[in-house]
Amino acid sequence: MSAPSKRTCQACQKEFAVESDDITFYEKMRIPAPTWCPECRTVRRMSWRNERSWYRRTCDATGKPVLSMFRQESGYKVYEQNYWRSDAWDPLEYGKDVDVTRPFLTQFGELLKAVPEPNLIQKNLVNSEYSNIALNLKNCYNCIGIDGGEDSAYCFSGILDIQHSFDIYQATSTEYSYELIDCVKSNSVRFAQSCEGCVDSWFLYDCRNCTNCIACVGLRSRQYCILNREYQKEEYEKELVKLDLGSYRKLQELNAKFEELKLRVPRKFATIIKSENVIGDNIRNSRDARGFDIRDNAEHVRYSYRVHHNCSDIWDAIVAWNGAEEECEAMSCSGKRIVYSALIWGGFDVQYSYNCFDCNNIFACVGLRSKSYCILNRQYSKEEYETLLPKIIEHMNMMPYADKQGRTFGYGEFFPPELSPFAYNETIAQEYFPLSKEEVERKGYQWKNPEIRNYQMQIKNDQLPDHIRDVPDAIASQTVECGHKGICIHGCTTAFKIIPEELGFYKKTGIPLPRLCPNCRHCERLLKSNPLRLWHRKCQCGGMESGIRNQELGKTPNYRNTATHFHGDKPCPNEFETSYAPERAEIVYCESCYQSEVL
């Protein structure tokens, strides 16, 4: 087995480890080890994924108005979806010969800016044009990163099979639900996080197979519970009427009690379900993995986020799915042996390419469909391609691209940040690793100044009706002031409209109107999710009395265990990697102590 080594990150100057299994993978793929640390590599890939920053501009082929990820002033050409997918143009016409007198990635950057891009990324959408990186949607609005949805809106990231739901972040098989985070198989559930198989409930955290429960934490197969206290059905229904959750004021009062309860109930150090030899969070039915949101029979995964559906041998990927194999430094790629690429939809042996469909043996190409043996969008024979490719790799190492910070990018590095079509704060990098303008520019990324918005507010935030029963239908056509009023870090739009379908959903389900714009609502959900970082910690179970360390910090009250644990009345000796930072207030237990208390 290859020996591990230590390196200094080119980007942040911190030391990081290249482990033995990393080296084995790189040798298998015949690629060099990275020169950036895992977190800097993640941020770099994220800076190429624009999910939610859209602009009105015209199609450069037809002149039609379109919504686009690419600003008009960005210098990138944009074709509307149908034209881009048609035979009316040929991306091979933009092909260019390799110029050995200049860095190769400089030439790729020129090609990237020359080849037209689709305005948004969509496939098989019906009445769902206001969506991006989405497929198989019907009657959806502002839905992003979704495969399979109907009659839903404001749903984001890694969502599969969602029906009649609004304001969702990462969920699977969800119906008639609202404000969910990392939930599975939910029906008529509102304001829930990390739950599975729950029905007809409000404000849940870490609950399984619960029905008719309100403001509960850590319950299993329970019903008619409020704040973790069980009621008879008739009593529960009376309490539900008293709570009057159609009132925004009363909803917030209940939420405050719910948040306080969440701090008094121990939680597991990570959401890891039916998995073996894994480190990270939100990992389900997977093996030998390190990362976040890895599920559905994934194996041999490292330093990755959102890897789903039978993927294997995935190193440094953001969004890999549908049986992807042997990926490294890939962003939104599906196929086999995809390295240093973004937006690759099927195919194999793809390197340094962007937004290509079902291509094989291509290097540094943009916008190709069903092509083979191409370099910089120039067609070659198989023999010519195989002869030229090693020469290009040697050239990349002999004359690497150097960015404005003096960092070098030879063969084995993902695209330089300054070549990204997007500003840092247009991408998911700002959502998961938020930075100030000064920090962004110091790190060599682009920054886009916020647009000046001068909306004429028809309804001030404090003028919104408190109760959903008092909301007139006419509000769906009016401009509402966002409660943050642009004073936040969430890219606040300062104003928003409530679409008719959304208003109908609120009235049908008895949910009061939101007070924030969709951008702020989305970012508030992100803040409730744990960061994509890990800390080494000890279990906080202290025997009969737990949460002791937090109590000493004055952050949470003690928790008294309800069962005898393997370590008796002594503190638990177990340690783990967790996405809960040490300074946080939650009581964090190891797997064994958590199971003793919650399951």
Task: Describe the fold and architecture.
The protein has 599 residues and is of the alpha/beta class. Strand 27 and strand 28 (408-409) form a beta hairpin. Among the domains are: 122-268; 272-409; 461-528, no CATH class; 535-598, no CATH class. The strands form 10 sheets. A 10-stranded mixed beta sheet has the order 7-8-9-10-11-12-13-14-15-16, with helices on both faces. Strands 18-19-20-21-22-23-24-25-26 form a 9-stranded mixed beta sheet. It contains 13 helices and 35 strands. Residues 549-553 have low confidence and may be disordered.
Secondary structure topology:
Elements: E1 5-8, E2 15-18, H1 20-29, H2 38-46, E3 55-58, E4 65-68, E5 78-79, H3 81-85, H4 104-114, E6 117-118, E7 122-126, E8 132-138, E9 141-150, E10 153-163, E11 166-175, E12 178-193, E13 199-205, E14 211-217, E15 223-226, E16 229-230, H5 233-243, H6 248-262, E17 267-268, E18 272-273, E19 276-284, E20 287-295, E21 299-308, E22 312-320, E23 325-351, E24 354-363, E25 372-375, E26 378-379, H7 382-398, E27 401-402, E28 408-409, H8 428-432, H9 437-442, E29 480-481, E30 495-496, H10 500-509, H11 518-528, E31 535-538, E32 545-546, H12 548-552, E33 559-560, E34 575-578, E35 588-589, H13 591-598
Parallel strand pairs: 5-6, 7-8, 8-9, 9-10, 10-11, 11-12, 12-13, 13-14, 14-15, 17-35, 18-19, 19-20, 20-21, 21-22, 22-23, 23-24, 24-25
Antiparallel strand pairs: 1-2, 3-4, 15-16, 25-26, 27-28, 29-30, 31-34, 32-33
Question: What would a concise description of this structure say?
Answer:
The chain is an alpha/beta fold and 599 residues long.
